Automatic annotation (TrEMBL):
Membrane topology category: Multi-pass membrane protein
Classification lineage: Bacteria, Pseudomonadati, Pseudomonadota, Gammaproteobacteria, Aeromonadales
Record keywords, A-Z: Membrane, Transmembrane, Transmembrane helix
Keyword Membrane attributed: yes
Subcellular location: Membrane
Keyword Membrane: yes
The protein, known as: Transporter
């Protein structure tokens, strides 16, 4: 269900961003996510006790929501929804590279192979898809990769800033992060509305997409994801990464009539294989090979 919801977010942004603009789409997404989470906290009567962690949570919101949502909205101006969904699957690859480069995480030969295959898959997607290679397409791909790099970095920062400091109710983490993302994007939204191109706000289907991506694909999805982490752990929860691309491609085909080439599908399979190599645990060495102590 979570993969279906997150896969649909690329469809909704593909509908909204060309009509409202990338900045407006990103801001409205986090704003309605913030409103939805506030309603949930109110209904559940959860106390707003951040235990001194509000500032780092808001900063995490900028890294984990504000910048990525803006990047995906920019990508949605030019890339089909299926492209963004496949590129989103590179999040664990980015996490592995950032962990190795900045957080003293070790990468085995298996994981390095996954990283190399991931780069190969991205190259195939960029050069053999249904969209002709151009500066705008490259910009869209780079925007998606910036978003996944932010996601990869945010995981380590969450461990350092929140988990290592005693943790916090996941509903409060989600709410605080969307508050930070909303405040971060607010000046850009204000400037765009006052000085940017004129936007036709009276388009019902675009508003329906904005409300869906905010309330369902962000607020509700965060709660489901954090619940998954609590129930089955972060490693197993990462398996949602494998399921998002098929759903993103399916929704784009069903609603927008997007088509995919064989080269694009091959690139998507390679990306999924590379993600599996990165996130799957290594097989334990049999005890008899380790010797006795």
């Amino acid at each position: 269900m979570l993969a279906a919801i997150w896969g649909a977010s690329f469809l909704f942004m593909r509908i909204a961003a060309p009509a409202f603009g990338s900045i407006n789409t990103a801001f409205l997404r986090v704003l309605f996510a913030l409103i939805g989470l506030a309603i949930i906290l109110l209904l559940m009567r959860s106390p707003l006790r951040f235990e001194g962690k509000l500032k780092p949570i808001m900063l995490l919101g900028i890294i984990n929501s504000g910048i990525p949502f803006l990047m995906y909205a920019i990508a949605a101006l030019w890339l089909p929804a299926g492209y963004s969904a496949i590129l989103n699957a590179t999040t664990p690859l980015m996490g592995a590279l950032i962990g190795f480069s900045c957080f003293s995480e070790q990468l085995s030969g298996r994981k390095w192979l996954g990283v190399v295959l991931g780069l190969l898959g991205i190259t195939l997607i960029t050069t053999t898809g249904e969209v002709a290679l151009s500066e705008t397409v490259i910009t869209g791909v780079l925007a998606c990769l910036i978003a996944t790099a932010c996601y990869g970095c945010a995981g380590f920062l969450t461990r350092r800033w929140i988990t290592a400091r005693g943790g916090l109710d996941v509903k409060l983490v989600a709410f605080g992060s969307q508050l930070g993302a909303t405040l971060f994007l607010l000046p850009f939204f204000g400037y765009g509305v006052t000085a940017g191109p004129v936007v036709d706000w009276a388009i019902p289907e675009v508003w329906a997409s904005i409300l869906a991506v905010g309330f369902i694909c962000t607020a509700l999805a965060y709660l489901i994801y954090f619940r998954l982490i609590a129930d089955i752990g972060p490693l197993r929860s990462l398996t949602v990464t494998f399921l998002i691309p098929p759903f993103g491609i399916f929704w784009g085909y069903l609603v927008l009539g997007e088509t995919l080439t064989e080269g694009f599908m091959l690139g998507g399979v390679i990306v999924c294989l590379s993600v599996w190599l990165v996130v799957s645990p290594a097989k334990p060495i049999p005890s008899q090979l380790l010797g006795s102590k």
